[in-house]
Amino acid sequence: MRPHIVAGLCGMMLVGALYIVYSRILQWTGHGLGLPWLLTLLLPGVLAGHLSPGRDNDSGLVAREGALAGAITAHFAALLLLSLLALGVLNIDWVRYARQVGPEIAAAVHDAALPATIVAGIVTAGITYAGCTLAGWLGALAYIAAREPVRSAYGVLRKGLGV
């Protein structure tokens, strides 16, 4: 199986786990995960870089595998986000809303809800695909940057031990 597919599937599991953890922490503490948790989205790119067969010679191949892993991760993340958006709009109690703001305003908002949801969904999907793909690519670049010092340290260690 190709490295970006394995890493992308792991990324999907990571996104699912992040949503579960986010919802539990939000339920328990009243606030969810902080922005630094988004850095975990670099991990599919790192994994793709590590699994890439050309990781020793071809940095371009490693970066491409990382970006593809991010794109595969984005499929699941976008589907999850769009599902939550649609469920949120479908769960609006329009009768209660009409009592609060008046029937004319509620009717206008109700008529605008579908187009606004479609636009929000398109924007959300675009941001999700761009963000996950960029994160995968950056994760692969981080792997490329980190592998040389590790190799050098390993070589020095082997020479020092006489292995």
Question: What would you note in describing this structure?
Answer:
The chain is built from five helices and no strands. α4 (94-101) packs across α5. It has one domain (3-161). 83% of the residues lie in helices and 0% in strands. The protein has helices at 3-29, 43-51, 59-90, 94-101, 103-161. It is mainly α and 163 residues long. The mean pLDDT is 87.
Please indicate the count of domains.
1
Computed CA radius of gyration, to the nearest angstrom: 22 Å
Distance between the termini: 34 Å
Q: Indicate the mean pLDDT.
A: 87
Strand content: under 5%
Uncertain residue ranges: none
Going by helix content, strand content and strand pairing, the class is mainly alpha
Order of helices and strands: HHHHH
Q: Please estimate the helix content.
A: over 70%
Number of strands: 0
Count up the helices.
5
The main pleated sheet reads as:
none
- Report the principal-axis shape: elongated
Which characteristics define this entry?
mainly alpha, 5 helices, 163 residues
Short description:
This protein is an all-alpha fold and 163 residues long.
